[in-house]
Specification:
CATH class of the largest domain: Alpha Beta
Distance between the termini: 90 Å
Radius of gyration: 29 Å
Number of helices: 22
Strand content: 15-25%
Strand order of the largest sheet: 3-2-1-4-5-9-8
Oligomer: single chain
Length: 665
């Protein structure tokens, strides 16, 4: 039997839907929950007033009604005149209803989203791939597609009496789940959701299960500066890593590792004094030439950068943890939630061995966080990366566009959502905080990177336990930073620190931003050590990092406290409780610094000085008391749960004893 032509199929479908329009409206009621669930998910990333196209709107119930009620600019199309008539009765005049074949529609790149639920699969199968390409063209960069398709592949199926109709015939076809996904990726979509939902369809007194593939996808060509990148976002972190790893290897320094025979001095920062930049590395001239060529080659390759997968218009928190750092992370995460922030968190673990089912499947999801495993991503192109190199990789592989990175032992005192929506992050896209020290980067690094070394009194070195970065605006910075860390232990860590305090990833972020000429803001207000008094002086166990919005406002007024200008200090925004880690299982052991004990072995508060700083961040709430409460909660609720605690006993009892002595006596 000869397959009907495209024109015949569409004429049949129009007549069939005209005939059963009212029946169809009632018949689809059971699928409303599924449609609305996926639509609500898509709308989480699309602001009201944005422009949305719906293909196959039917009577406009329930989805078009929801879009109109929320204030979206809606164009809705259906091939059936009867369906359009029903829609006009149910929708406000603001909805632009267009009757006709979706293949004959003409639009520019104007939509923030396109819906095609139970519609594209009525087209002849060969036209479906064409339709998807046209939808891609109609979407703005970052625009979303929500559509469903038959799970199984078939060329054509028809029913001339569907829903009791006597006019026309219904036609369906589909490529099947894997081929549909392949087509979307080939066109340039990132497939965010690919799920199968079974509809129980009732007809003529019998029920049959029909499986549909539900797709939520994102258009991935993104405008950068003055050109449209020809490189799409990669559909998975694994595919991106396979491609990016080859780039890291292609432009490796290709010299012997740099040896730090002599370490640079660790100098405190002084805005009034610019000491000579340390220069203690001994690198052969031939090696410098090779490294400079490799660095230049990598920068050239970033002119059109490879694009890691992330969900456009999203923001969240990224951290790395595992083993003994996982309890510390849970405490910090609970402190974060005390601020009222609901930002999602992605926690990267090194390997499957660090994945703790109860923590990752129960505890973290209850706090809007989830575990991801780096080794599962890196296995697409195996390499050895140590934990101290993980930070930029976690940021690269995160699904968020805008990232607040927090070390596992760092937490905010205010809602960090504010930082994304205000200066200085809005205009720069990269925000960092200072360390105690002056820069110890070698002059050789700047020779290799091809830009002048900044004055030693311009800014402090960087404390990278907290930072904000936009992948959209600073992708090249993040990629170059990853290059510095990938080749860090052998080359770039020595070049950027020369063995001085804190050698590691901390200097790679601003170094990369300067090499790519992308803007950044480093907080000017000096970091502050928090601790308590001992006979030997300050027993410092944490660092206070200050409000960047207030710091930026002072700088815009020409006031620099670090240079001696008189002005109120910004508020403390983050506490980085890093020395030692406040792990309930080990915090009461003997450490180089013992935050919970006096010289005489008596219990004490950890943070009592500097008095003005402590008084400042305790104005609204007793921060240390809340912190120790969360430590106690974690110890007492999760003592049998953390795998790293298996060898310890009395963890809850130990913390409770401290709590009662310090906070209840």
């Amino acid at each position: 039997m000869t397959e009907p032509s495209s024109a015949q199929i569409k004429d049949d479908i129009k007549k069939a839907y005209d005939d059963v329009a009212t029946t169809y409206l009632d018949w689809t009621q059971p699928t409303h929950t599924t449609r609305l669930s996926y639509l609500q998910t898509m709308l989480e990333s699309i602001e009201p007033s944005k422009s949305i196209l719906e293909l196959g709107c039917g009577a406009g119930v329930p989805c078009t009604q929801l879009l109109a009620a929320r204030g979206y600019t809606v164009i809705a199309n259906d091939i059936s005149s009867s369906q359009i008539t029903l829609a006009r009765e149910r929708l406000p005049h603001s909805v632009n209803l267009i009757e006709g074949d979706m293949m004959e529609l003409e639009f520019g790149q104007q939509f923030d989203a396109v819906l095609a639920m139970y519609s594209i699969f009525h087209l002849p199968r060969d036209e479906q791939s064409v339709m998807l390409r046209r939808i891609f063209g109609w979407l703005k960069p970052g625009g979303r597609l929500l559509a469903n398709f038959p799970e199984m592949g078939f060329v054509s199926a028809s029913d001339s009496s569907w829903l009791g109709g006597t006019e026309g015939a219904m036609h369906w076809s589909g490529w099947g789940r894997s081929e549909t996904r392949r087509l979307l990726v080939e066109i340039g979509f990132v497939v965010d959701v690919d799920e199968v939902v079974v509809d129980a369809e009732e007809e003529n007194g019998s029920v049959k299960d029909i499986a549909f593939q539900w797709i939520l996808a994102t258009k991935v060509w993104i405008l950068t500066r003055s050109y449209l990148s020809s490189r799409p976002l990669q559909p998975t972190p694994q595919i991106f890593w396979r491609d990016f790893h080859s780039l890291l290897e292609e432009y490796k320094p290709d010299t012997a590792p740099i040896v730090e025979d002599v370490k640079a001095p660790t100098l405190g920062f002084n805005a009034h004094d610019a000491p000579t930049r340390p220069d203690v590395l001994n690198v052969p001239q031939a090696d410098l030439i090779k490294m400079k060529q490799a660095h230049a080659g990598f920068l050239t390759a970033l002119a059109i950068p490879p694009r890691p997968y992330y969900r456009p218009h999203t923001r969240g928190i990224v951290s790395t943890a595992g083993g003994p750092y996982l309890p510390v992370l849970v405490i910090s995460l609970r402190m974060l939630r005390q601020t009222g922030s609901k930002l999602p968190m992605e926690v990267f673990l090194a390997t499957e061995e660090e994945y703790e089912p109860y923590i990752c499947n129960q505890v973290l999801p209850s706090l809007n966080a989830r575990c991801l495993i780096l080794s599962q991503i890196l296995q697409s192109s195996p390499t050895k990366i140590e934990k101290y190199q993980f930070k930029p990789f976690a940021m690269l592989f995160s699904s968020f566009e805008e990232i607040l990175f927090l070390d596992a032992d760092a937490f905010p005192l205010e809602k960090p959502d504010l930082l994304f929506n205000n200066e200085p992050f809005l205009s720069t896209g990269l925000l960092t905080w200072p360390d105690f020290w002056a820069s110890s980067a070698s002059p050789l690094f700047y020779l290799i990177a091809g830009y002048n070394a900044p004055p030693m009194n311009l800014r402090q070195s960087t404390e990278s336990g907290v930072l904000l970065l936009s992948k959209k605006s600073h992708l090249r910075t993040l990629l170059l930073c990853t290059y510095y860390n990938f080749h860090g232990p052998t080359h770039y860590y020595p070049l950027l620190s020369q063995g001085a305090a804190g050698e590691g990833d901390k200097e790679t972020f601003l170094a990369a931003a300067m090499a790519t000429n992308e803007p950044f803001y480093q907080v000017s207000e000096s970091i502050c050590a928090l601790g308590h008094r001992t006979k030997g002086g300050l027993a410092g166990s944490a660092m206070a990092q200050f409000n960047p919005m207030q710091d930026y406002a002072l700088i815009k007024q020409g006031l620099s406290r670090v240079k001696g200008d008189k002005a109120p200090a910004p508020d403390v925004f983050f506490i980085h409780a890093n020395f030692p880690k406040f792990n309930p299982a080990t915090i009461f052991e003997n450490h180089e610094v013992n935050p919970a004990f006096t010289d005489e072995g008596e219990y004490t508060r950890a943070w009592t000085i500097p008095e003005d700083v402590v008084a400042g961040f305790n104005r609204k709430v007793n921060v240390e008391r809340v912190f120790w409460y969360e430590i106690m909660w974690t110890a007492c609720e999760l003592e049998p749960r953390f795998e790293s605690w298996a060898k310890y006993e009395g963890i809850c009892e130990g913390v409770r004893k401290y709590w009662q002595a310090v906070f209840e006596s």
